[in-house]
Automatic annotation (TrEMBL):
Residues 22-42 are annotated as: Disordered. It comes from Picathartes gymnocephalus. This is NADH dehydrogenase [ubiquinone] 1 alpha subcomplex assembly factor 4. Binds calmodulin. Interacts with NDUFAF3. Pfam families: UPF0240.
Length: 179
């Protein structure tokens, strides 16, 4: 709403104000400093002669100057990224079953691959007395706290197959029509 009010005052009598501003006498520009007038100096013949004259003494000094330029040796940038590991990471071979072709062959200690994670979760789900958190931590070189977190928060999917009579009952059921 405030924009409408200000627009009315801003556009009030615009044409007359513009004509008044155009009809005003233009101000004269400030005089320039004489040193800034290079075009006046370029016209004088003494300056042109001084510029075009060759000085033999300066030419002999210039011939004595010998410049030898060498580029600094080129440094090869490391393509490994911003940070370099301070020590060599210990790696371990992965414990792969029948999914050997799908997974990586080596992982750093303290980490597991995706196939190993799914395997250990499934083993713990099927046989929790044998595959305890302590055994999993020792088997995969993990910390016990991390293994407990994995077993608590990640659960593998369960495939359930319904018996045929249940499936038949579900398909034969007709939906009720809303009236």
């Amino acid at each position: 709403m405030g924009g409408r009010v200000t627009r009315v005052f801003r556009n009030f009598n615009v044409e007359n104000r513009a004509r008044r501003e155009i009809a005003k006498e233009k101000p004269t520009p400030a005089p320039r400093h004489p040193a800034a007038r290079l075009d006046a100096m370029a016209d004088s013949p003494e300056i042109k002669e001084e510029v075009l004259r060759k000085d033999d003494r300066f030419l002999t000094l210039l011939k004595d100057v010998y410049v030898e330029s060498r580029d600094p040796p080129v440094r090869v940038k490391d393509e490994g990224g911003e940070r370099l590991p301070s020590k060599q990471e210990e790696k371990r071979l992965t414990k792969l079953g029948h999914l050997e072709a799908l997974d990586v062959k080596q992982v750093p200690k303290g980490k597991i691959s995706l196939v190993e994670a799914l395997t250990l979760l499934n083993n713990h789900k099927l046989q929790p007395q044998i595959w305890t958190a302590e055994k999993i931590a020792a088997e995969y070189s993990l910390e016990l706290k991390e293994v407990n977190s994995i077993l608590e928060f990640f659960i593998p999917f369960t495939v359930q197959e319904f018996p045929k009579e249940t499936r038949k009952a579900i398909t034969s059921h007709k939906p009720k029509k809303l009236a």
